[in-house]
Amino acid sequence: MYLIELNDIKHSYGRGEAVYEALRGVSLRIEPTEKVAIVGRSGSGKTTLLHILSGLDSPTSGTYQFEGRDMSRMSSDDAAELRNRKFGIVVQQFALIKEYTAVENVELPLLYRGVPRRKAHMRALDMLERVGLEKMATRRPWQLSGGQQQRVAIARALVNDPAVLLADEPTGALDQTTASEILNLLSEIHASGVCLIIVTHDLEVARFCDRSIHMVDGRLLSG
Amino acid sequence: MKHFGPTRSRRSKKFVLFALLRQSFRHLGISSILTVIQLFFGLIALLVAVGLLFGLGRLSDLVQTLEPVSTISVNVDLGSGARSDAGIATYRKLLKVNGSIRHSASVQGVGLYFVSSLFGFVPTGQGSAVNDDFKDVTTIPVALVNDSFAENMRLPSTGEPLLSSNLFPSRRSDRIPLWVGSALASRYPIGTLLTSVYVNMPYVGQSGKLTVQRTPCQVVGIIASGSVFWASNGGNVGPDSLQSVSDMILAPMTLSDMSRDIGSATSILSLNMEIYPKPGMESSARAEALAVIRRAGLHGEASSVSGQLMSVAREQRPIILSTWLVAGTLIVLSVLGHISVLLASLVKRRQEFGIRLMVGSKKWQLVRLVLIETVSLYLLALVVPFILSLGLSSLLANWLILIDARTVLIAVAVTGGISLLACALPMWRISRLHVIQLVQGE
């Protein structure tokens, strides 16, 4: 059984004459152990596809099966719960709450899962240790470098032990050295059994994955 | 990778409010403090306004309660001695005000005894009565009469100045009883009697240089002097005491009768009465009392308790209106401030909300978060005024502002409702947020 199975997914924004079709019939299957890169230029629809994969957005038409469950017809609350348990999401601008410390940011998914605060805190510290930031736990995002912030974001994405890690331009805001370190970290994560889907326009990053899916104008060219 | 299962348990409830407040302040910063201050003053103003309203409500209740036994206060300014007779007549007429079931009265007067003028002081008389029973009549020297006063006064019979040499025997030994009597008069009632009798004796008999015809008034004067002693000797002097007191007032007047031409030898300064009309006859009794005063050509007023209370209520009305205005303005400002702070925080926290949704928060959990933060701030803004109101209650009671549990509850309920309404708009905005827009920070 595929972990992810998309059939003729279409997605459009706006109404009337201002409708913009971001996805024009995307069909895709991804295995649980894959490391996939979705590559395309800006505006090709790759980020929209990532949002639909994570349940942050719903397709206008088509079906989306995740572990055999139809996510395209799921309520927003059910999708939120599934996202919390099965998906880890990393975005280009790190998306950390700046009023929270690193460890508080990492705790957040656990708290929404209902894990007690003390236990969540210990687990978050473990995750920070895994990404090499155990000494930065009490620092706030603005006290960290870009690479460190992305590590915190990765720790948060992994803290609930997800089945899939979705990364949208994870190295887009980092220098080459730091980007390389982040990719190595993602590789380790994939090696531990997590499906990795990276959305990028960087072909170097795409080469890092086992499979590349190219998108142009909301359609898949290969994959 | 180590796996943590989906263990569900309840979060610790310890210091939940503190944690929420901390979180609210962390996100809202200085704006939340301003909101708290606005709410604080709004609540205080509302407390005062509601307290005033209840205070006047209580006043109104009190008036309703007192209505059956309401009192008409009559205050008549009698002025000079020439009005004394009018005062007495008025007093007697007021006693007969239709519908009155009970009276109490007090009079104040100054009687210029000739003897007193010689020794340089003027005794004043004051008495009080409930219905027919005058209980307390005293005579005390209070004012000095200077020489110029005596010199300007002319005796009607001879046209000579009102000097001791013209009034009484010039021999010092003859004056001794007067001195003793006047001295005693200032301390003991017996002194009043002795002085009065001795002073009036010359008019009854031979008065040395001064020849005055015997008149019935002089006899009345002697009797009145006794009455003064009798009345001042304490208390209830029986069913005829009303007449006795009238005589007490008349006694110096009788003397002044003799010396009317030399000016106001005697005056009753004021007459104060309380008339208790029968239920339902308050208005007519008051009108009648006023008519009596007017007919006598005197200056006076007759006001009912309810009228006085209504007058207080009228005086309070601008204060109440202005307090409501202030309270309303503060509350509106508070609500606007609250909404603006919450909306501003919503804009500021868009990305945070997006992040929360991204990591698994449901929309209702976000709405709950904002609601709890709002309520936490409101509770904080509530605690201080609540404590203050307890201290304020006794202070404000002096201005008819009653702050009791009901007032506090109403103020709390109103501001609480407003606070919740204030966060309705931000919560509605949250429920319509699109995750993608939030995550992308649009």
Write a structural description.
The complex is a heterodimer of chains A (223) and B (442). By secondary structure, chain A is of the alpha/beta class. Chain A has one domain: Rossmann fold (3-Layer(aba) Sandwich). Helices cover 36% and strands 26% of the residues of chain A. Chain A contains seven helices and ten strands. Chain A has helices spanning 46-54, 76-86, 102-113, 117-130, 146-158, 176-191, 203-207, and strands at residues 4-13, 20-30, 35-40, 61-66, 69-70, 87-90, 164-168, 195-200, 211-216, 219-220. In chain A, strand 7, helix 6 (176-191) and strand 8 form a beta-alpha-beta unit. In chain A, helix 3 (102-113) packs parallel to helix 5 (146-158) and helix 4 packs across helix 5. Helix content of chain B is 62%, strand content 13%. In chain B, helix 2 crosses helix 14 (363-397) and helix 12 crosses helix 13. Chain B is rod-shaped. Chain B has helices spanning 16-28, 30-66, 84-94, 114-119, 147-152, 164-167, 172-185, 189-204, 216-232, 241-258, 282-295, 305-348, 350-358, 363-397, 405-431, 435-439, and strands at 72-77, 100-111, 121-130, 133-144, 266-277, 299-304. The longest helix of chain B is centred in the C-terminal third of the chain and has 44 residues, at 305-348. The chains are: A alpha/beta (223), B alpha+beta (442). The interface between A and B is medium-sized, with 40 and 30 residues.
